Amino acid sequence: MSNLIKFFVCLLLVYSCSTKKEETVDLEHSNVELEMVADLTSPPFVPKPTAKRKAKKLIVDMEIVEKEMELADGVNYVFWTFGGTVPGSFIRAKVGDEIMFTLKNHPDNKLPHNIDLHAVNGPGGGAESSFVAPGYEKSFSFKTLNPGLFVYHCATAPVGMHIANGMYGLILVEPEEGLPPVDKEYYIMQGDFYTKGKTGDRGLQPFDMEKAMAEQADYVVFNGHTGSMVGKNAITAKAGETVRLYVGNGGPNLVSSFHVIGEIFDRVHVEGGDLINENVQTTLIPAGGAAIVEFKVNVPGSYVLLDHSVFRAFNKGALAQLQVSGDENLKVFSGELREGIYQPEGGTIQELPSNNEVITPPTAVDLEDQLAYGKQIYMATCFACHQSEGQGIENVFPPLAAADYLNADVDRSIKIVLQGLQGEITVNGSTYNNVMPSQRLSDEEIANVLTYIYHSWDNSKARVTPEMVAKVRAGE
Ligand code: HEC
Ligand SMILES: [Cu+2]
């Protein structure tokens, strides 16, 4: 009997011990919880609500990736991205969070970048602390003082070019009590794109600085692609559900007149802030701004999201679909449903033969070969910045046409292509202080492209051989 009592006492002890242990484990656990790794999502998805959690140290790890992706059907573009997507990964924080931000620049990237978050109170929005070269990472921290939906973007010169190439995204700072729960949440961001070719021209399209400066967009798209949320990629909801859209506008130039055909926004957080407007048809989203729109979908069907500057929607790509399933509600809507009224008109999809210039670097046997191969490399690599006739762009990219700086020193030009260039230089009497990335080209390719440049546009007709490049590469 007493043995049995002992046994029970023991059992109780063990039990209380173990519960105690659990308690201490729990405490430790909640200490760890004070630091939390942020869940980052790709568009059109957003991370889980912060709900009622307390403010924390929030660790955000983001990697910049420069990569070729499709911009429209048959049209490719080299995007510069935060996290591999356009727009970049969605960050969801809470007011009072201390964000420990680490920005990594992938070693295969060609350019330095940084990040300016509009949610930051501090110089440059983080841009100065986060400037990072390929292969490096930078960390900085900031406290989220204001709730709201904020844009982040790269702010490395030329800033417009970095943004035009897709370097923007959204960070949501939820109020202390969180946002009211809804059934569906999505992440949408508009951006305007400028290509060398016309809207719809196939193949790999380089960025066009002149069109960007003239604000003549070839494409205006949601989430980096004309079809990002169309057809099988449409975002979805069920009839009767509440939908919240986090809508940003990366620009670089255009303002968005955001509208959903067949819906009225029950609530709009105007400009992403605290001001709430109700029963809104179209909300204006500035470049570098955002809005939170909320509505209840009452009846099933296909709802088109667009920039109501309609040529952008139907001819340049700023069009997406919300597909709502469920039962009819004839009290709310009983019109005849016809499919295919609002479809993109295909201005962006032209049946042109693909003239994607492939650069296979054959060995040049004579000057004529060198000029031909050199031109291909120029058009694929240097042209985006130095322009088609080597004329450059005032204050941003120096000219290579009749350029005193270029003609003064051939070895120096080789070195610039091999290693890149930054710091102030003077070309034909104008100063430039910018960054040229090093170019990943072979000795032969560098010899050809420089020979082509020296033989074009009133330059000195110097001839560059692969041996000369090899010597400079070896540091001789
Ligand atoms: C991303 C833009 C960019 C690309 C691509 C680029 N450059 Fe440059 N380049 C620049 C910038 C910016 C400068 C000036 C840097 C400075 O201010 O220090 C420059 C300077 C130069 C210079 C010296 C200044 C002059 O006018 O003579 C040469 C030579 C040059 N680049 C050649 C090339 C060649 C050849 C290519 C292609 C293989 C190329 N660049 C690709 C941006 C670029
Ligand atoms: Cu950048």
Summarize the structure.
The chain is α/β, with parallel strands linked by helices. The chain has ten helices and 23 strands.
Description:
This protein is of the alpha/beta class and 476 residues long. It folds into three domains: 30 residues; 269 residues, Immunoglobulin-like (Sandwich); 107 residues, Cytochrome c-like domain (Cytochrome Bc1 Complex, Chain D, domain 2, Orthogonal Bundle), CATH 1.10.760.10. The chain is 23% helix and 31% strand. It contains ten helices and 23 strands. The strands form five sheets. Strands 1, 2, 3, 5, 7 and 11 form a six-stranded mixed beta sheet that branches. It is elongated. The structure holds heme C and copper (II) ion. Copper (II) ion binds next to loops.
